[in-house]
Design brief:
- It is built from 25 helices and five strands.
- With 633 residues, the protein is mainly α.
- The longest helix has 28 residues.
- The N terminus is likely disordered.
Length: 633
């Protein structure tokens, strides 16, 4: 049977407060195909306001993400050192090695390091070269989310409004502001996820296997950025295409099989290259127990993070990160500050969208978009709320595009839902700002009064005061996005460094996910400051590694300060390299000049403890500033 794409419903569509002049009575499947000749004439001369508004939004986003960026220094020194190493050595760049002599890799695949490594190679080792690429990724993600959401909505004008809402939500989510100003791999992962969503909407609109192949390639690249975390959107994309692509069922399944093959190839080529590369001439795969990428992907960066229980995860997790898993986790502590601002509104969007879907009030492509964003949000929310391994608040940046997409789509398709979302977002923002102790108290009153004004105007704009629609939108933005915008600005003004960055300084003492609406455990993080005399000492060495030190974090700080290769004993999480005999052989071969104590706890790092004991027994210590150093050659 030949499949014919038709409108899902000819029933009148409820008027939207964001469309001047009332409701639309027919819904087209594609936003770029008008349902009447009049609409066709209108599309030939598109209004300028969407382009102007988008330009302003992207300019503001760029300013937010780039303003005073050097206050973060090198951000996460662990990844900054790997970028520096990749700028010096192409093999280190390919593998994502921590040091240019390829002793061990970082604990993630190297896609994000390929970008920062090239940036450092061409612009030098400085804060801008490390962090600007992440800000650019953020602006691109915001622009792509606009394009994705706009294309999803049938009516072009509504689509523009929905796209602007979605893009603004992503831009002003504190977790996004944090990550797009930082050099963790999450920035590139989110960009790939949003680009894949755009390709998915294009594929679903036309039943196109070519666009669907691009979805697979892009998600494969997301895997090479942060492994399984980049594939959490797979169920959402697969279901949306399977249920709503305008092509027969058998063909849809064939298309999905092809996209899966594209995903495997685009993610597996690097995995295969590492597996086939002679082990003796490549670095150890950091984070793995058997020096393989698959163990890293499915172990340390896979099920162990979700379910806990892995020995490496247990050793690498200070107490407090994995407790209080459950529904309230994303509303509490630091995780609440970084992602929760619009979560009450998302609940409304999920319910309202399901109602519109069940009543056939959404076009085919709108239905696909709603399902994609909804499943994306639910899968990520369930995982982040209940994972009992290593979990950091900034992981929730992966939720931000789905939050924006759901709110944008629902706001322009249901006036009651739009009103409810504004009220709940404003109320929760006031509560979170009060808990955080952030900003002047009068701003909470402004948000509350803005919500009242938005509700009054939204109720009257569609019928009585249609010309007040722009004012209603402005008050809605103030009420719904005011709180998250304030916290994002505060996040951008806060210096960040280390492996666990938090958004903004608040009334609490460095809150994280370990408590519900209260202060939480302080997790100590070693300083990355290196004594200049120690850096000079390492700079003068001529050996393969200027020094060896327990832990990748300490090694990274030494590398950045001295510009020399440093052997990270035990890697990031007590990796089984080097063994004591291997270390002794390297010392006797005069490949390591110094051993530098890092303060890493020997109780949890068996191999590091053995090496430290051997060094103390055979070499006298000396003090360089506040650091204990042993000369080995």
């Amino acid at each position: 049977m030949k499949y014919t794409a038709t409108s899902q419903s000819s029933a009148p569509v409820p008027a939207s407060p964001f469309v001047h002049g009332g409701s639309v009575t027919a819904v087209a499947d594609r936003p770029d195909v008008a349902s009447t000749s009049e609409a066709g004439d209108r599309d030939q001369i598109p209004p300028r306001w969407p382009a102007v508004a988008l330009t302003a939004l992207l300019a503001g986003t760029a300013a937010l993400y780039l303003a005073n960026l050097p206050i973060n220094g090198y951000g996460n020194a662990f990844y900054a050192a790997a970028a520096q190493s990749g700028a010096k050595n192409w093999t280190a760049w390919f593998f994502g090695s921590l040091d240019p002599n390829n002793f061990i890799t970082v604990d993630k695949p190297p896609a994000s390091l390929w970008i920062t490594g090239l940036s450092v190679r061409y612009f030098g080792m400085n804060s801008w070269a490390i962090l600007v690429p992440q800000a650019v990724m953020g602006v691109l993600a915001v622009a792509t989310l606009y394009a994705t959401t706009r294309r999803t909505v049938a009516d072009p004008r509504r689509g523009a409004v929905a796209g602007l809402i979605a893009a603004a939500v992503l831009a002003l989510t504190p977790a996004a502001t944090l990550m797009f100003r930082y050099n963790n791999p999450d920035a590139l992962m989110v960009l790939f996820m949003v680009v894949a969503a755009y390709f998915l909407i294009r594929a679903t609109a036309a039943g196109s296997w070519r666009w669907l192949l691009l979805v697979g390639v892009t998600l494969g690249s997301a895997f090479l950025t942060k492994m399984l975390a980049g594939l959490m959107v797979l169920p959402a994309f697969g279901l949306a295409y399977l249920l709503y692509a305008p092509t027969p069922w058998r063909r849809r399944l064939v298309h999905l099989a092809g996209a899966t093959a594209a995903l495997v190839i685009s993610s597996g080529w690097w995995v295969a290259a590492v597996a086939l590369w002679p082990v003796a001439s490549r670095p150890y795969i950091g984070g793995s127990t058997d020096n393989t990428v698959l163990d890293l992907a499915f172990g340390y960066n896979g099920v162990d993070r979700i379910f806990g229980g892995g020995d490496k995860v247990a050793r690498g997790r200070p107490g407090g990160w994995g407790i209080h898993a459950g529904t309230l986790r994303m509303l509490s502590g630091e995780m609440g500050y970084e992602i929760s601002w619009l979560l009450p509104a998302v609940v409304v969007a999920l319910v309202a969208g399901a109602y519109l879907l069940a009543r056939s009030r959404l076009s085919r492509l709108e239905s696909a978009g709603y399902l994609m964003w909804a499943v994306w949000f639910v899968v990520c929310a369930v995982v982040f709320s209940n994972m009992t391994g290593i979990v950091h608040p900034y992981y929730t940046v992966a939720l931000a595009p789905a939050v924006g997409g759901l709110i944008g789509l629902t706001a322009v398709r249901s006036r009651p839902a739009a009103i409810a979302m504004v009220v709940l977002a404003a109320a929760w923002s006031v509560a979170v700002l009060h808990r955080a102790g952030l900003g002047p108290s009068w701003m909470r009153w402004v948000i509350g009064l803005g919500a009242v004004a938005a509700v009054v105007l939204l109720l009257g704009a569609a019928r009585r005061w249609p010309r007040m629609t722009p004012v209603a939108v402005a008050f809605s933005a103030l009420a719904g996005l005011g709180g998250t915008a304030m916290f994002s600005v505060a996040t951008a003004a806060t210096p960040h460094n280390g492996s666990i960055p938090n958004a903004a300084h608040t009334a609490d003492v460095w809150p994280t996910v370990g408590s519900r609406f209260a202060k939480t455990l302080m997790i100590g993080v070693g300083s990355t400051h290196i004594d200049p005399h120690l850096a000079e000492l390492l700079c003068a060495t001529k050996t393969t590694w200027s020094a060896a030190t327990p832990g990748s974090q300490a090694a990274a700080a030494l590398e950045i300060a001295s510009g020399t290769p440093v052997m990270a004993i035990g890697g990031w999480s007590d990796d089984p390299v080097p063994t004591l005999p291997q270390f002794i052989d390297a010392v006797h071969a005069r490949k390591i000049s110094y051993y530098v104590e890092s303060g890493r706890m020997r109780l949890h790092d068996r191999i590091s403890g053995q090496i430290a004991d051997w060094v103390e027994h055979h070499y006298p210590p000396m003090r360089v500033g506040a650091t204990t150093v042993y000369r080995l050659v």
